[in-house]
Amino acid sequence: MPVLAVNNRTVHYEDAGGVGTPVLALHGTFGRGTTFAAVADRLRPEYRLIAPDLRGHGLSAGGGEFGRDAFVADAAGFVTALGLEPALVIGHSLGGVTAYQLAARRPELVRALVIEDVGAVTDVPVVAQPVLDVTGWPRTFPDRLAAEDFFAASPAPDYFLESVVERADGQWELLFDPLDMMAVQQENVGIWWDDWLAAPQPILLLTATDSFLIPPEHAAEMVARRPGTELVTFDATGHWIHRQDPEAYAAAVRTFFESAG
Where is the AB hydrolase-1 domain (predicted)? Predict the structure, then answer.
């Protein structure tokens, strides 16, 4: 897994490789760059997916600030460090907010955007429960089975289990600090219409019929208020569209990027 220094922090990232057009992919809260693996496979050879572990997630450095400015600065630093500008950008959930804020605040760095299942408002009443309380989550598990049991009742067990790895002593460790994740979630809650409307690039908004994060009324308002926004809604999928239907997801992304030029 490649490593890059961005804003005095160590950032680990996944790189699908190849000679295709680079695409920056930003994951959601509790995730890591590996979450896009199935999509990366389906976008090759035309596109080369590059997916960092965001601050506090995966193998990247934790601690410090978790506000919106920090995530946007990291994304900007990552784009410029790898010479991706103007970049094609995919953002899921937390990464989606970061992506359209990057596009609005540093428009020269972004060519086109795919925003997956997150709104211009991430606060109540649009999102019924914008923060998941994880303060009591364990950092370690005695074995893999214990971790599987713990996450079995979660909405996406496989997604969370990607962030559980075996240590040298045989224990299984959660790669993120639950207190960091509380800060990440709380700082991501807000009304971000100004950023959504200011982004000048073409945007593809992906939503799901079973999403718990963005109701159809809010998605429709996002499209109506912002010219240059396309909307695709996936049937029988939830918040993690890129994992639940990677084939259709990749097809929609490819079609959009081809039209965006």
Answer: 23-252
List for the chain the helix, strand, coil content (%; round to 5): 40, 20, 40
Domain boundaries, the chain: 3-127+178-260
Could you report the per-residue pLDDT of 194-235, keeping only the tens digit for each?
999 999 999 999 999 999 999 999 999 999 999 999 999 999
The CATH homologous superfamily to which domain 3-127+178-260 belongs is Alpha/Beta hydrolase fold, catalytic domain (3.40.50.1820)
Phi, psi of 29 (to 5 degrees): -55, 140
Sign of CA dihedral 129, 133, 139, 144: negative
| Strand order through the sheet with 140-141 | 140-141, 172-174, 164-166
pLDDT digits (tens, 9 = 90+) for 173-194: 999 999 999 999 999 999 999 9
Q: Cβ distance 89 to 24 under 8 Å?
A: yes
**57 neighbors 30 (Cβ within 8 angstroms):** yes
**Main-chain dihedrals φ then ψ at residue 146, nearest 5 degrees:** -65, -40
- Residue 253 phi/psi, 5-degree rounding, is -65, -45
- Averaged pLDDT, 68-79: 98
DSSP 198-225: H--S-EEEEEETT-SS--HHHHHHHHHH
Q: What are the backbone dihedrals phi and psi of residue 230, each rounded to the nearest 5 degrees, phi first?
A: -100, 150
206 residue type, one letter: L
Assess whether pLDDT exceeds 80 at residue 156: yes
pLDDT tens string 109-128: 999 999 999 999 999 999 99
